[in-house]
Amino acid sequence: MKVREIVSIILRKIGLLGLVRWCKRFIVGALKDIVWFAKGGQRKNTTTQIPIPPPSLCFAVSANYDVDYFLRTGAQGADSIERILARNDQPIDSFNSILDFGCGCGRVIRHWKHQGKSSFTGTDINSSLIRWSNQNLKFGKFFPHTLTSKLPFEEGKFDLIYAISVFTHLSEELQKHWITELKRVLQPGGLLLITVKGSNWKIELDDTQREQFDSGRMIVLEPETSGSNYCGTYHPEEYVRNVLASGLSVIEYEPCGSQDTRQDFYLFSK
Predict the structure, then answer these.
(1) How far apart are the first and last CA of the chain?
(2) CA–CA gap between residue 132 and residue 155 (Å, rounded)
């Protein structure tokens, strides 16, 4: 067992793991932001003229302080979504109302600023990320919510919803809550696109967990940290099709289809 793992176990037992993690993120993030701004950090993309979030906000979304990584993987994510939709004769500009569930500070949605036919909405549990998005991504509307609340939208508002690496950080109870809520705000015939950690990610599990995964059981690590990058959830295809997708039709399953996350793509229809 690595020293880092031993320290984490000790801190968890004495109830200080969450506090230590928060302090580390706050201090490192603040230092990264100071250096970035001091060096004249690029406030806007020179090509699109869309504002760029500081390193601390990038980390909150992608677990990486590198702004270039944030932009590059966001473009890859947008391209992956467009590719799977086009393959099913549903180009991105054919949708009227699109929801980015777990939008962060616009890592993916920013790449559709100039797609003028659709209206774009984003939601996230991190109010700081939502505040930045509303201040800087004027082409969309962004709303905060809590980990267990309902979305502030009427039934059937959206004809496309996507959630990139969101269900990978939720406990089973919360996944059931949010898949039900997403189905509520999805139009009949609308599409829901999610990514999950499938078989390609079993390397992160121990032998017992891999055996459980192979038997069709979803694995959740640190469920008490749901909604953060510390919670890791792994989905067997059997579980997604038979449990998570209950009440939905599976239009396409693409292992490792998400270029930015190497996660499995599932495209559902209501």
Answers:
(1) 45
(2) 27
- Does CATH number 3.40.50.150 belong to domain 73-269? yes
Per-residue pLDDT tens digits for 106-155: 999 999 988 778 899 999 999 999 999 999 999 999 999 999 999 999 99
The residues spanned by each domain of the chain are 73-269
Q: CA-CA distance, 36 to 32, in Å (whole number)?
A: 6
Q: Report the predicted TM-score, pTM, of the whole model to 2 decimal places.
A: 0.91
pLDDT digits (tens, 9 = 90+) for 143-182: 999 999 999 999 999 999 999 999 999 999 999 999 999 9
